[in-house]
Specification:
This protein is an alpha/beta fold. The chain contains nine helices and ten strands.
């Protein structure tokens, strides 16, 4: 008997910093979403593709739900909720360390109830909580919504991540492969470069700087070295909100910018399988987070 092939779109939704991007990267087996231990790491809607023998799952990583403090923040939250209306399955990620259903999770729950979509509850970071605590969280959420399944996981310890894929596949309908089986994201190389540089900046910079930075690739050109090896020449600019932030990003004698560039180049060479010649500049673009022209790039098309 011929196996039925299933496919569908799955939105991962949750508060900021609950580990959505880490889960996606672990499931895909490739780095497709920026990860940093800071809120609002994901700004845009990113698609990641998992190809299985009998299914193709297209994950949509959305910005974390937070209280917006700028027009950019409003766009991010709007994107997260808008995407969730049109997917086949929702994956709602919460933390095992939660003591109760907070305002952010309550807001997401209300949206899930309104959407009436098949929803899988994923309880992340179970390595940081006792079994009794996890059981309490499960009981708490069971009374709120009829979830298709509830899965306790840990991306750090690689616990139950394969179960997420199995449960999603169960809840998909028969359908075609939307992407080539060799693809794992719909991001362009330019977007991957910008996100990688921003991720390194998020990890290395002081708390007040990261959310005010924007990375844009100015030029990308593939050429051959003297040894006839392919290499990418990439010029990029990090924009920040204030002159004081520019100094922090560059660092003493350019040390911080050099570190950001080195870490980004190393990641990109692994990701793209090609040598990278990366040059990064830093410029001030005041209040860009409220600039409608720039924010058009973040809005869903």
């Amino acid at each position: 008997m011929e196996e039925i092939f299933k496919s569908g779109f799955v939105s991962i939704i949750g508060r900021t910093n609950v580990g959505k991007s880490s889960i996606i990267n672990s499931l895909v087996g490739e780095k497709v979403a920026a990860i940093a231990n800071k809120p609002q790491t994901t700004r845009t809607v990113i698609r990641a593709i998992v190809n299985r023998p009998n299914s193709q799952i297209i994950f949509i990583d959305t910005p974390g739900i937070h209280k917006p403090k700028s027009k950019l923040g409003n766009v991010m939250v709007d994107n997260a909720f808008e995407v969730s209306k049109d997917v086949d399955v929702l994956v709602f990620v919460i933390e095992a360390t939660s003591k109760e259903i907070g305002k952010g999770d309550r807001l997401i729950l209300d949206k899930i109830k309104a959407a009436k979509r098949k929803t899988i509850l994923v309880i992340n970071k179970i390595d940081l909580a006792s079994k009794a605590k996890v059981a309490e969280i499960i009981d708490l959420y069971k009374n709120e919504y009829d979830f298709a399944s509830i899965i306790p996981v840990s991306t750090v310890k690689n616990i139950n991540l394969d179960v997420i894929l199995d449960e999603i596949e169960k809840n998909l309908k028969e359908g075609p492969a939307y992407y080539n089986i060799e693809e794992y994201t719909d991001q362009t190389t330019r977007q991957l470069v910008e996100e990688t540089i921003r991720e390194k900046a998020l990890k290395l910079l002081e708390d007040e700087v990261p959310h005010g930075i924007l990375v844009e690739v100015d030029k990308m050109k593939k050429r051959k070295t003297m040894e006839n090896e392919p290499i990418y020449n990439i010029d990029a600019t990090i924009y920040c909100l204030r002159e004081a932030h520019k100094g922090i990003i560059i660092g003493k004698n350019g040390s911080m910018l050099k570190k950001i560039g080195t870490y980004a180049r190393q990641d990109l060479e692994k990701m793209l399988g090609i040598k990278i010649n990366l040059k990064i500049w830093v410029k001030v673009k005041e209040d860009w987070i409220n600039n409608e022209k720039i924010l058009k790039n973040f809005k869903l098309q």
